[in-house]
Structure formats: C-alpha cells, structure tokens
Amino acid sequence: MKIVIACDSFKGSLSSAKAGTAIADGIRRALPNADIKMHPIADGGEGTSATLVEGLHGTWTPVTVSDPLGRKIDTAYGILPDGTAVIEMAAAAGLPLLSPEERNPLYTTTYGVGEMIADAIRKGCRKFILGIGGSATNDGGVGCLQALGFTFTDASGVAISPGAVGLADLAAVSAEHALPALQDCTFAVACDVTNPLYGERGCSYIFAPQKGADAVMCTKMDIWLQKFAQCTKKIIPEADPLYPGSGAAGGMGFALKTYLHATLRSGITLVMEQTHLEADIAA
C-alpha cells in the first residue's frame, strides 16, 4: 500500500515534519510494509521556513539582525541542499516579537529582513524563498531595501526615519548603492493576499489595525504609501502599486516585486513545488 503524508504544522505544538513523522510511525505499526512518502506542507505564513528546512534536510544559519524596533536579536534562516535561502519575514519583523504595548506600525521597520537577505548573499545564496506572513510593519518594505543598499531620502538628501512615519518625508529614491549581487538573485515570495499597496483595500486600512494602528494612522500611512509609489515610479516607471499582493505584509509585496523583481506566488503552491508533492501523489 502506498501512503502519502502531507500535513501542515500543528501551531504551537508540532512542526509539519514532526507531525508527519508521528503519523508515519503510527501507520507503520499497523501496516509495516506500507510505502510511505512524507511531505512537509505550509501556506507561506509562520512556520514555512521550518517546514521546508526540516522536510528537505536543509540547515539553519544563525544571524543577528534588527527586530521591528531596531533592537538586535538572534534569529536564523534556512539554506536548502541546492543553496536556496529560505527566509521568514516574521523571524525579524514579526508581530510576536513585540509586546502589545510596542505595536505601532508608524515606527516598526523591515530592516532586519533585508539584513537576513544580505547575510545569505554574503554566504553565496542567489536563490531565495521568502515567507512574508505575520509582519508587524507597514513601511512599504523600505527598511528591507535600505538594508540592501537602496537609499530613501528627504528633500534635504537626508535618510528618512525608520518605519512608516519616514515615508512622510520621502522625496527621492536611489538604487545607486544597492548590493550588486542582487542582479544575480531570484526571489519567490509566498503571498496569499491580493490587496494593492494603497487605497481602501490597501495594506494600511486592511492590515495595519491588527498591528496597532488607529483610524487616523491608517489614513496617514495610506497617503504616505502613495507618495512612496510615486517616488518609485521616477526610477522604475513600470512599478505597479495596484498589482495584486503589493499590499502584503505592509507593502513588502510591492517592495520585493518592484525593486528585487520577485515573483509573488501562492504559498501552498510554492511549498508543494519545492517538495514535489504532486509528483509523488501521481506516481
């Protein structure tokens, strides 16, 4: 008998790989001769990195980066056997990293995510899978891009402040000092929302309230993200802030697609492709 095990994690209890192993052990007790194939499954949210790294026998790489408020934290990202870096946004810019009193998307930054990407590049990675669920941010992904060498300045040529509040002063964007190796990198982003960057269905109005924003803050951030998109179009004319998924993770979807030429993919589809689940089911 052939049995394919494909289960998601049991949040707060078991990872996908550990849950699958437990199921397989139980099946073997009843059916010792069963042909069992186990596949890790995740939807692109928190736990996706662990699912892929554990399920595909990758390794963890420790790194010290900035948390959403710029404090240094120890975290890790995965590297798969083929050299693909698997990075979870929540590991550096996640809402669980903050106490309820600290949650304020005016000041939270994605800078630490960019630091993780830069570290993986220094270690030779050129292919990336990013899970961007569970963020505490609404900075349009600007912090991440700053960590990768892009510059965002005010009318005086001074770097803008971290967080969404910095976008209020944004006047110019430059890619002149971006890491050269980014040109050789590919990014696949697990993104299961279709919201645009701004507007009534944009990230500020739909997702920022759960990150600590009130109604006034949402209106301001929506206006600032429109300014960010306008400044971006000056150097990247094809930038599309209304592209489905641009509003994911507080605008991180827009930043990754526009500046890093990332593809926004269904999280579950991306994971299934990596683990070759459909091929094993069909075999």
Describe this structure in words.
The protein has about 280 residues and is α/β, with parallel strands linked by helices. It has 2 domains: about 40 residues, no CATH class; about 230 residues, Glycerate kinase, domain 2 (Alpha-Beta Complex). The protein has 10 helices and 10 strands. The longest helix has 21 residues. It is elongated.
SS-derived structural category: alpha/beta
Count of helical regions: 10
Mean pLDDT: 91
- Please give the largest β-sheet: 6 strands, mixed
Low-confidence stretches: none
Give the CA-CA distance, first to last residue. Answer: 13 Å
User: What is the H level of CATH, i.e. the homologous superfamily of the largest domain?
Assistant: Glycerate kinase, domain 2
Give the helices and strands as they follow along the chain.
EHEHEEEHHEHEEEHHHEHH
